[in-house]
Design a protein that fits this description.
heterodimer, A: alpha+beta, Rossmann fold, OB fold (Dihydrolipoamide Acetyltransferase, E2P), 2 domains, 6-stranded mixed sheet, 21 strands, 35% strand, B: alpha+beta, 6-stranded antiparallel sheet, 20 strands
Chain lengths: 361, 373
């Protein structure tokens, strides 16, 4: 049985629809990342589950029971926010204690609860400090500790790493899965960072235009994006795209990309004549040895990206696209030269040009 | 196109009743004509003060700045021949995006048809052709930033100063625009200084990067050199994402082997022939070392370091593995997909050519693996 279920959940403010008919089942202990740009309603969704706002329609179920009549403090939900939201006049320990005290725990139980999460989050040495004396990283850990202290069944994390620096965000990204698993809670984690989403999630729910466009494992989201929009949200650099048309040549489906025919999966033959958006991930653009059979493109610029090198390429018919290869690769060309490329089928995607929906497999 | 030379530039902010702040200290920098240089550092490192002194918004406390052989640090900002794009965009609100971009061209009395063509070209490059008729307040932050960049790049200037020019850009556009802008700067032989806290941007665009910290230049080198030969622990750990792994090590040399004891029974062992004689001699003098290993050089493979997997995260084009090594977290990154379950025991390896050795007392680099091969 799912521990948290959203059933046809909708929220509007007057005529403004935030989202409409959201469905989601999260299993016990599962980490579900709610991923979407700003203004997509991710935070509002968390507020509905926490009970601080009411849905316009639909239900939220915890352990199979509708929670609409359960007050927020009795939902057994812990929450942490991107702006930390610590009580400024309380020490870190007092902040962490608030949910425990709200549950009427004994002083000993409160102390034990604080110790447990403080150790887990490595903030035992700053428990006596006021929030203003804490670094952003420590504030964020304190906020997480407070959310975890009462051992909630459901943990709602609203972009908790947004306001910490890149280094700490990376460290926390490595550490969070273990912390969250140890808590045993079912986690809904909101972020706009696709790497964070892929790193932490058991499943990712992509929220766009008021709907879950795709709810799937990170693997499926990246390798089989349901729409062009999802494909463009995951990946750095973003997927290359080109508008083209499915053609039949000698009984085989193909499409012109960069002025050259590329073969299409046989399953697309039935849709001959249809307009499609061809997509290829930059890391699926292979640089072939000179003289090979492939698409010839000129190298406009070479831009290193961490341990990878990104090439801005242009085909003879003017299509601009990116290739991303390991910086250690021996086939990195110079700017203003020509290269021959082909596309690795595993990083190649086809979308209907009208609906933007995925067309194949 | 002109060469920029900063010579012993100091900036001290004095205000009554407060401690003075020495923001930039004896800063020397030469940017060759047509070169793209990034000033890279975290906030408070002095990079923005340096930029403002070059632009003329701040006086230099001492030292000189010359551009194309001309001393410019005493000139008014408008007389310096510098085009600038600001982090805060600073577009003129009553002018359309197109008028903003054309502003300096009009002031320079360029024929209207020529100015129009230039504005159109730059707008196409920056993907803002469709908003040229709109006002700044009605477009997104990313679009305003692109317009601000366009306004600077469209001008003809001796020097281009770009202050965090791409921070607000839409992620889906960023990589393509980096490529186009780099191409544009090269093609027009623009001498360019880019100020940023984002090493990704610096690496992507710059021919050379000046790493700043605490008002001082830490290292000035190409992106590849910064990676391969960091001058000290600061640049070693600052440059590179994820950051370099750092281990304290006790070196020893015996029976044809160089050994680095990392504690907890983890000992890196190399044949003396794998390291150059000079490096071996340097190591022999050091009772303690700090060893840096970049995540891409630390491989989950048969090797001397025992580790327990903490997390394994696939990000589409790479996998980040965190492993516990004697109570410390080490990070290994692979270009392909790796599946390792948390809690499993593995071993890690690193080749001699991928080691970076630092002096623990000064932080200075002693040797890099790339020298050893």
């Amino acid at each position: 049985m799912s521990q948290l279920a959203l059933k046809s959940l909708s929220k509007s403010y007057g005529a403004f629809k935030v989202f409409d008919g959201l469905n989601l089942d999260a299993g016990s202990g599962e980490i579900v990342v709610i991923f979407g740009g700003s203004g997509t309603g991710k935070t509002i969704l968390l507020r509905l589950i926490a009970g601080v706002e009411e849905p316009t329609a639909g239900t939220i179920e915890l352990d199979g029971h509708d929670v609409s009549d359960i007050a927020p403090e009795h939902r057994n939900v812990g929450m942490a926010f991107q702006n930390f939201a610590l009580f400024p006049h309380m020490s870190a320990a007092e902040n962490i204690a608030t949910p425990l005290k709200a549950q009427g725990k004994s002083a000993d139980a409160v102390r034990a609860g604080i110790d447990r999460v403080a150790k887990l989050l490595k903030i035992d040495h700053v428990l006596g400090h006021a929030p203003r004396e804490l670094s952003n990283g420590q504030k964020q850990r304190t906020a997480l500790a407070r959310a975890l202290a009462a051992e909630p069944r459901i943990l709602l994390l609203d972009d908790p790493l947004r306001n910490v620096d890149a280094k700490l965000r990376f460290e926390m990204r490595l550490e969070l899965p273990r912390l969250l698993r140890q808590s045993g809670a079912t986690v809904l984690y909101v972020t706009q960072d696709y790497k964070e989403a892929m790193a932490l999630a058991d499943r990712i729910a992509v929220l766009a235009d008021g709907k879950f466009v795709q709810v799937a494992t990170p693997e499926d989201i990246y390798l089989k994006p349901a729409t062009l929009g999802v494909a463009r949200l995951f990946g750095d650099p973003a997927i290359n795209t080109a508008k083209t048309v499915i053609e039949m040549k000698n009984g085989m489906a193909s499409a012109k990309v960069g002025g050259r025919d590329i073969p299409l999966p046989a399953s697309l033959a039935a849709a001959a004549g249809r307009g499609i958006t061809f997509g290829v991930r930059p890391e699926a653009v292979n640089i072939l040895s000179p003289g090979s059979d492939g698409l010839t493109a000129s190298v406009v610029a070479v831009t290193p990206l961490n341990e990878r090198t990104v090439l801005l390429l242009q085909s003879p018919d003017g299509w601009e696209f990116l290739a991303s290869l390991p910086a250690s690769s021996t086939s990195i060309p110079e700017p203003e030269t020509d290269v021959v490329v082909d596309f690795d089928p595993s990083g190649t995607h086809f979308f209907d040009s009208q609906s933007d929906e995925r067309l194949h497999g | 196109m002109a060469e920029l030379v900063l010579s012993k530039v100091d900036k001290i902010y004095r205000s009554r009743g407060k401690k003075s702040v020495h923001a930039v200290k004896a800063f020397d920098l030469t940017v060759k004509a047509g070169e793209i240089v990034a000033l890279l550092g975290s906030s408070g490192c002095g990079k923005t003060s340096t930029l403002r002194m070059i632009a003329g918004f701040e006086d230099v406390t001492s030292g000189t700045i010359t551009l194309g052989g001309r001393e410019i640090h005493t000139l008014a900002p408008s007389a310096r021949g510098v085009a600038m794009a600001f982090e805060a965009y600073s577009l003129y609100p009553p002018l359309t995006i197109g008028e903003n971009i054309a502003f300096a061209l009009k002031a320079a009395k360029l024929p209207v048809s020529e100015a129009d063509a230039k504005v159109k070209d730059i707008a196409r490059m920056l993907e803002i052709s469709d908003i040229l008729g709109k006002y700044p307040s009605s477009v997104s932050g990313g679009q305003q930033q692109r317009a601000s960049l366009g306004r600077a790049l469209v001008r003809s200037a001796d020097l281009y100063l770009l202050d965090e020019p791409m921070g607000q850009l839409e992620p889906q556009l960023r990589a393509v625009l980096r490529g186009r802008i780099k191409h544009y700067l090269r093609e027009h032989k623009c001498t360019t200084i880019l100020v940023t806290h984002d090493q990704t941007e610096a690496n992507a665009l710059a021919d050379r990067i000046a790493v700043m910290e605490d008002g001082m230049l830490q290292q000035y080198a190409t992106p590849a050199e910064l990676k391969a030969r960091p001058a000290n622990l600061f640049t070693g750990t600052f440059i590179g994402e994820p950051p370099m792994n750092i281990f304290d090590a006790t070196p020893s040399i015996a029976s044809g082997e160089v050994r680095f004891d990392l504690g907890n029974g983890n000992v890196l062992t190399y044949n003396v022939s794998e390291l150059s004689d000079t490096v071996t001699a340097l190591i022999a003098k050091m009772p303690q070392l700090v060893i840096g290993i970049r995540p891409h050089a630390l491989h989950v493979a048969e090797g001397p370091i025992r580790a327990t997997i903490m997390s394994c995260q696939w990000l589409g084009d790479q996998t980040h593995v965190a492993a516990d090594v004697g109570g410390k977290t080490a990070v290994s990154v692979a270009h392909d997909r790796v599946d390792l379950s948390p809690g499993s025991d593995v071993s890690l390896s690193v080749s001699a050519a991928d080691l970076h050795l630092f002096d623990p007392s000064t932080g200075h680099a002693i040797a890099h693996g790339s020298d050893m091969a």
